[in-house]
Amino acid sequence: MSAAISIPQGEGGDSAVLDGTLTSVDGCLVVRNDGDGDLVVYLPAGDFRAAGSEDFELFGESFSLGDKISLAGGYYRIEDAPLGDDCAAASSKLSAFTASSLGSAP
Fold first, then answer.
1. Which 3-state string (H, E, C) describes 21-82?
2. Domains contained in the chain, CATH given
3. Model-level pTM?
């Protein structure tokens, strides 16, 4: 499994919170949210580490697919987000959320 990695550009902040369930679409990490559906989560470089096919670390904490999560960050249209090869297939059909940190527990 891979994750979309972003390089922070310009000003921004933790103005939005995304709560949902960690899942995978086309091998790319996404968050399934009741209101927004599946969102590709762009993570700061160095804050995602795969630890197996369904296990990984985000912001230094261990997670697995199916876990509930809360992320702080912001919503972006996919064409506004920096795209990498890792999640190109999922990115082409989903909206994006750029995470800057873990939020409070969902």
1. EEEEECCEEEEEECCCEEEEEEEECCCEEECCCCEEEECCEEEECCCEEEEEEEEECHHHCC
2. 4-102 (2.40.50)
3. 0.77
